[in-house]
Amino acid sequence: xxxxxxxxxxxEGLRASLRALWWDAQGNWDRAHEIAQDVDNxxxxxxxxxxxRKEGDLSNAGYWYxxxxxxxxxxxxxxxxxxxxxxxxx
Length: 90
Description:
By secondary structure, this protein is mainly alpha-helical.
C-alpha cells in the first residue's frame, strides 16, 4: 500500500498503530493519541513519540522514542510521519 492509498483507506481495517497515524493525518491528534497510548509495543511507542513531538512535549516524546528503540527525531514532522507509515506498512 502506498502512502496515498493509506490516507484514503478505511482506518478500521488497519492495526492500531497505523490507525493512530491515519487519524493524525485527518487532523485528529486526540483520537490518534487515544489509540497510540493503548498499543503496548515498540511500534506503538514510536507513534506515541511522534505524536508527543508534534504536540511540542519533547521530554515526553524522548521517553517514548527510548521505549521504541528509536533515535529522537528532529526536523520536519510530515517527513517523520511518512517515514513511520512507510516502515509500518513495509
